[in-house]
# Entry
Amino acid sequence: MSRELDPVIHQTTRLRLMAVICHLEEGDSIDFTALKKELALTDGNLGAQLTKLEEAKYLKIKKGFVGRRPRTQVQATPRGRAAFAGHCEALRQIIDESS
Amino acid sequence: MELTPLDAREALSAADDAIRSVKRAIDRQTSRIVLMWGAVYVLAPLSMHIWPLWGVIPQQLLLLGAIAFSIYDAHQNSLISGPSSWRLGGLWWLTFGFGWIWFLILDPASFRNPEAHGVVISRQMWAYGVSLAMFVYVVMGLWIGRLYVATGLAVTFFTVVGLLWLGEWYWLWCAITGGGTLLGAGFWLRRQARV
# Structure
């Protein structure tokens, strides 16, 4: 059965974000600042891409405070995990079909 | 949406690179903590080997380690947090259970030395504290990485071997093997973070 590429995840930055977030254990979340630093993104770019993924219900964004410092954490939803797995499967199928 | 096999390969490779980058950041962060406790684990038993009656030295070193850890922890953003409270709850109960049984076996409180200068740290007490801390490494290692499981088991093994068979060389043995294992694990994590 051939899988479809996911148009939301297809864009490179969103693909990288989903890879990192879906790699976490279920229920775990990753810090916004860490994502920004490790994926070398700007606040604006990261915020915009996360919003798109959140609108697709692939992510949950949780805002809170640690002491006085604001803290944003990002967590994959089951729907997001399934979409990412499907997208990767579709990419692998494209590679397999060529060989 | 049309993709060539090369595009697909590049996309998967970009995803893997992103995962590796975050893993490296986590290794970098935890290596500092493991290295710091490794240094404490070398210095504290070494001081007991040199000055066996001055338990106050390792006590202060452990306190210093705990303060340094708290300050570091408060000033860094932990990259990943797991609200999966069942794990933390489970860890707490497992550690409590292990601590209880281990306490009955080792009986660390039975040691008394009237010549000691204020603070008494017996071999059993050290073995008890270390194996309890290493138990946490082992259990947490089950979800954060096998290196922690191996480190926890190795340090506990060395500590128990020293306690049972090495007599007065116990402290030096602990400094070399236990401290060495922790420092080795810290440096290995650091190296991983650079690869």
User: Anything to note?
Assistant: The interface with chain B takes residues 5, 7, 10, 12, 15-20, 23-31, 33-35, 37-39, 66, 71, 73, 88, 91-92, 94-95, 97-99 of chain A (CB under 8 Å).
